[in-house]
Write a structure and sequence with these properties.
Elements lengths: L3 E4 L8 E7 L4 E7 L5 H4 L8 H5 L7 H16 L5 H31 L5 H7 L1 H22 L9 E2 L2 E2 L5 H26 L21
Antiparallel strand pairs: 1-2, 2-3, 4-5
């Protein structure tokens, strides 16, 4: 009898991965494959104005993070100081990206396993309130990116070196503010739900550990 369980493809993950369980030696190996895409080579010889749009294609879920990072690197290279308005709008759209990404990961990819169902479809049937809450949060994150990013939730076209192509209208930001205030309850409820899931034991740290300089 084989004492090894091997799963070559794990579903509901961003990327490709597998797991091997050695029953005899009580060993679990997680095998994650990340193919090299050589984005560093793709931008060689390109205009600096093209680079943010190229590197944000690294991911369709967290594209805004890659775009802002590229913009910051170019601005630092040229010594460009952005305005407070630009800084705040970038922070807002980055928060939108995080809300969308967490909504997708927690409710669509992770929750089915944590709650013992086969998929997000089954989750919606078993826990419709929970599934709807996750979709509301994800939709809100998408809307933030659409308003500030130029009408699209991924691969934004409105961010540029030094600022934005167009600044969102005041009425759009005020309406978004109301939606964010309404969504606070969903965010708190989501934190409560996932904090109660006994996933694995976590040891309390004996001392605080910093991540070094440059953390803001």
């Amino acid at each position: 009898m084989s004492k090894e369980i091997k799963i070559n493809h794990i579903c509901r993950v961003e990327g490709h991965g597998g797991v091997t369980i050695d029953m005899e030696r009580d060993i679990v190996n997680i095998e994650v494959f990340e193919g090299s895409r050589f984005f560093e080579f793709l931008v060689i010889g390109k205009s600096y104005q093209e680079i943010p749009q190229i590197v944000c294609r690294i991911c369709a879920i967290c594209s805004i993070s890659h775009m802002i990072t590229a913009l910051m690197a170019i601005e630092n290279a040229f010594g460009i100081q952005i305005s407070r308005q630009t800084m705040l709008l970038r922070e807002l759209i980055h928060c939108g990206g995080m809300i969308e990404s967490h909504g997708l990961h927690l409710f669509c990819l992770a929750a089915p396993d944590y709650l013992g169902v086969t998929s997000v479809i089954t989750l919606a049937e078993k826990e419709p309130e929970l599934a709807n809450m996750g979709l509301r949060l994800k939709k809100l994150g998408n809307k933030i990116q659409e308003i500030i990013g130029g009408g699209r939730p991924i691969h934004p076209i409105n961010l540029c070196i030094g600022g934005f192509g167009m600044i969102p209208e005041k009425h759009e930001l005020l309406a978004l503010k109301k939606e964010l205030e309404t969504a606070v309850d969903d965010g708190i409820r989501a934190a409560q739900v996932f904090s109660k899931i006994d996933i694995f034991p976590v040891d309390e740290p004996q001392s605080e550990k910093g991540a070094g300089n440059g953390c803001g």
